[in-house]
Amino acid sequence: MITKQNFSMLGNYAKIAFRNLFKNKAHSLINIFGLSIAMSSAILITLYISDEMNFDRFHGHADQIYRIVEQRTSPNQGERLLSQTAGPIAMAMRKDFSEIESAVRLARTGRFAVTRGTNRFYEGDYFLTEPDFFNVFDFTLIQGDPSTALSEPHSVVLTELEAIKYFGNNNPMGQTLHFERLGDVKVTGVLRDIPQNSHLQFSMLIPFSIMDATNPRFKMFMEEWGRGEFITYVFLREGLDQTLLESRLTKLLDDHKGPDSRESRSIFLQPLTEIHFGSLNIEFERNANKSNPSDLYILGFIGLLILSIAGFNYVNLATARITRRSKEVGLRKVVGASRRQLAGQFISEAVLVAYVAVAFAAVASELLLPLINEFTGKSMVLGITGQPLVWIVLIFLATLLGALSGIYPALILARLQPVLILKNAAFGIGGRLWLRRTLVIFQFTVSIVLMAGTLVIYQQIEFIQNKKLGFEKDNLLVIDINSGGARRNFKTMKQEFALQSGVGAVSVSSRVPGEWKNLVR
Q: Among 7, 39, 54, 493, which has the minimal tally of Cβ within 10 Å of its Cβ?
């Protein structure tokens, strides 16, 4: 309980702390600068870890959404995990599994051309899906009705950025785009741009029904149990027995396995919130942001080391100033100050320095954040209301760091005898400063290790960026022409391109190396 006397004492601590802060400007600036750098690093690392840990959690029922992952074992290929499964699984679950609230399939069929007026684009960042998409996921539609946006066969839902690309500042709703091989489609919805911390990244959603209308073989393809081309997500009821459901789904696959199949197939349900970290060994992965949780542990450990170095540096500087504050402590003891009051005074000064450092660190982090976002490909923000957990952790760390940094010199000074202090006889305490020497050694050791690690990482990044790939990428132009007629006459096209001025050499391939797409006949 804070009494009036205690409150007055805390106010006195603060007043003296501010006085000493301004009285010893050089010492204070060194401490604040060192702690600010450490705190800024802690802020940015905490933001990054928080962003990673919150992947896919913006969906309202994220803990009830699962992805079906199939495990296949065969004599030739051994054991494999695949994120793509047979098309009929979703239909069977909707019909026969009461545990399922909803199920939705996603697929891609390669790149295709999109035409708007005289502008022509190649589109590959899309998903074919079903009207149930919005029953499973909570991606926000800012225009259109989620219950009907994907109901019409020749319709498309665009993201905000994609809508601007095709229609500029005009309202895209009801406007028409021409899809190669699929015909004209009407814009029936506009999605808020997909959050960066979503494992699903796309620019448009196209209903499967458009394929039924333009490709008679597609329906047979969706009903084939032996293939695995669809990503299937399920929204499960609360309180289900996941193991029992997985065994029932596995039996469903076994019941439809061909008599000549030598492949063993089983199913497990992967929680949506674990896809980001749990997909490193899954094939045909559409996870746009796979990550390894051990990276976060390493990053968090580095952040703690940086904070530790800053704290140790403060302790070293504070203990180095013991002799300059000894007479102050002696006089305080003479007039009746207790050991507890003296310790509180020094700890309050340390905490004040830490809080001032937090303020400077917040400003530095805000200035650095755009560069960090550009480097990591994220969209992190440091708003007070947007990241309350980060601020809570930061204030806690500042208090803890300040307290731990101030407690050691406080205890040393509080134990000194006033008579010895005033006679300048108290500082035969060199042997009692063994901790300071230990911290200096630890501080330099950790600093050298971190600098060496940073140098290695820098050299690796330089190697990756400057590695000779066997071609001059700055002078290489890829002309992607997905046309059967052009492909059959590629020799003529090659000769014509070679005749153009400024063209040093021409080569032809069926696809851009490193990319997959369906070829138009």
A: 7
